[in-house]
Amino acid sequence: MTGRSGRWYSLRLEYDSSRTRSPWWTPILSVVLALLLCAVFIAANGMSPLVVYEKMFRGAFGTSYGFTETMVKAIPLLLCGLGIAVAYRISVWNIGAEGQLTVGAMAATAVTIYFPDLTSFWSITLMLVFGTAAGALWGLMTAVPRTHFGVNELITSLMLNYVALLALDYVVFGPWKDPKGFNFPGSPMFTAAQSLPVLGSTRLHIGLVFGLVAVLIYYLMIRFTRWGYELRLIGANPTAARYAGIHIKKHIIIVMLISGGLAGIAGMAEVSGVTHKLMQGISPGYGYTAIIVAWLAKLNPLGLIVTSILFGGLIVGGYSVQTIGLPSSISEMLQGAILFFLIAGDMIHRFRIRRSA
Amino acid sequence: MDFTTQLLIAAISAGTPLLLATLGGILTERAGIIQLGAEGLMLMGAVTTCIVYIRSGNLILALLSAVAITALLGMVHSFLCVTLRANQTMSGLAMTLFGSGLSAYVGKSISGIPLPGSLPKLDLEILKPVPVLGELFGRLDMLTWFSLLLVLVLHLLIHHTSWGLHLRAVGDNPATADVMGIRVQLIRYCYVTAGAALIGLAGADMVLAYAPTWNEGLTAGRGWIAVGLVIFARWNPLRALFCAYFFGALDSLGFRIQLLGSAVPSYFLKMIPYVVTILVLMYLGYRNRNKPSGTPESLGTPYIREQRF
Q1: For B117-157, what is each residue's pLDDT tens digit?
Q2: How far is CA B139 from the centre of its chain?
Q3: Among B90, B105, B304, beta carbon nearest to A41
């Protein structure tokens, strides 16, 4: 190589901390690299990665049934992902969306059990209110230990996921078990008045509108309100925000209430719109997938919509490979790999190749 | 055998994987790198042990493979956090997600197949006649003894050797350590890798001593409990021993109360370790609000040579 110093090994990597905005192509590149990495594991298992990926893609987007299923899965991902994104704005790591979703679903089911004869409007409204409140309460149980006791919210929110799942097991095997359910663990089926309206003959329910409205509100709030401005300020520089008189503890509590509440809505929409009863495994890890959805979207509202559809497709695609004898955990593996490449890509972008003097 | 002895044995057997994982976490975090991937690493350690043990029938080979695979994952974590200076929280989370997905994927073929054997126990004839201890020690397996030894070794290493001094320096003040000629990045790589391997061994211990077949998501949050235990233990190996056994006792107490025919539904008993984790962390946070918590001072901040803090 030519140049002032003349030798190739005088090139060196230099860290440029000013490059904090990662480029638009890192999410795409990380998806591609994750597909390549997982292809190795699939091939090691004696399958052709191309066949598997084709099967997944077709299952998720190839048919109109597959596509509406993808959209059905995208709804809880969008709501939970949005909640996580709001909290992440001020570096609050909520990984408890799974538990918040579960208690939201439980609270909505409680409405159907204790107030069985309400009209359609009142029962849906009450389910929505209860679901949101329960999720928000679960979020609060993460926020208060953080603000008043200095407990890392990652551990609290995750522990509460296990507590919520055990509580779910308790009610579906115990007090709420359907007496006519042939001993199968689950609540009684919801009536038509307790179910969310669906689009035509598909399974796509009105929860999609909840999700889209929530994204719109998020965009407007972040962009145009004082609250959104304060969140952006805390996110950019917490020390400066504190000196500017912004009450950070209050904001942590507010974002966790919103974050949990949105996951609670997702839980309510799942029971009322999709399963029509409370049962075990109400969420195939939506709360965890939503973490990656939020990250991949870079907290951007439009990005959230795109990535939640992509990951909805990944979940549906994961199910469809089961027909060729592969476990659906293949989609979980892909999700983890995407996150690895994404955080690596965001950082690699900050290094510059410089010629040392 | 009376109830107390039984509980003690159960506490040690349930506490050993927690202890190994906590020690792994302590090593990683003493070097200044947050380790939130414990759950995924434990699962990878457990599934590797099961696969290799079932396929080869060789216990030592199974343990070595578990250590090797998780050490490799530890290197990935070090590469991301040390070399690329990536977000340590996110890297750990990615490790947990990837580990649980990959372990479920590769473990599908051996799911539910019992392991060909368990860990050899150390049966000391001399200890047999001693009332409680005789019962106790005759039932401890190889990995439990190893973990006890490790507590001692790590305690001496961290607090009484120059290597430990270097480790603490790297975790507390990497810039000063660097000026003193300590190779910060190398040390971080070594301890993060070794810590990950220990967490992998914790997963291996779970399947070998506790649950003798592979099931998806078998660790059920114990990796995360270990993350909490690192904080309770205030990054100190000796305290880790007591904290891990305390949680082992809680874990098995629920099961035992159930066996005794308690009226409380088992689901609530199973919540105990998770709820207690939160409560103890809150108590510690409250008690130590104006005191140093023992956290390595540079935990979570990547070290950049040219940059002053």
Answers
A1: 777 777 666 666 666 666 677 777 888 889 999 999 999 99
A2: 21
A3: B105
Inter-helix orientation angle B3-30/B131-138, to 10°: 60
The yes/no answer to whether this complex scores an ipTM above 0.90 is: no
Confidence of residue A241 (pLDDT cuts 50, 70, 90): confident
DSSP state of A282: S
Tokens of B141: 């397996």
Number of H-type helices and E-type strands within chain A = 13, 2
Closest CA to B100 of B112, B88, B92: B92
Partners of residue B267 in chain A, C-beta under 8 Å: 166-167, 169-170, 173-174
For chain B, give the DSSP string.
--HHHHHHHHHHHHHHHHHHHHHHHHHHHHTT-----HHHHHHHHHHHHHHHHHHH--HHHHHHHHHHHHHHHHHHHHIIIIIS---HHHHHHHHHHHHHHHHHHHHGGGTTPBPS--PPB---TTTTTSHHHHHHHHT-BHHHHHHHHHHHHHHHHHHHSHHHHHHHHHHH-HHHHHHTT--HHHHHHHHHHHHHHHHHHHHHHIIIII--B--TTTTTTHHHHHHHHHHHTTT-HHHHHHHHHHHHHHHHHHHHHHHTT-SS-HHHHHHHHHHHHHHHHHHHHHHTTTS-----TTTTPPP-TT---
Report the sign of the C-alpha dihedral through residues B165, B168, B170, B176, in that order: negative
User: Which of B65, B168, A217 lies closest to A209 in space, CA to CA?
Assistant: A217
How does strand A11-15 pair with strand A351-355? antiparallel
Question: What tokens does A7 get?
Answer: 């030798």
Q: Do B285 and A151 touch (CB under 8 A)?
A: yes
What is the band of A1 on the pLDDT scale with cuts at 50, 70, 90? very low
CA A61, A62, A63, A69: dihedral to nearest 10 degrees?
Answer: -20
In chain A, whose CA is at the least distance from the CA of B224? Answer: A155
What is the rounded (10 degree) CA torsion for A242, B285, A100, A90? 20
Contact criterion met (CB < 8 Å) for A347 and B85: yes
pLDDT in tens, A283-331: 888 998 899 899 888 888 899 999 999 999 998 988 888 888 777 788 8
Cβ-contact B86, B80 below 8 angstroms:
yes
CA-closest candidate to residue A104, choices A268, A256, A280: A268
pLDDT digits (tens, 9 = 90+) for B89-102: 889 988 998 898 88
**A88 → chain B, closest CA residue:** B90
Backbone phi, psi, residue A175, to 5°: -60, -30
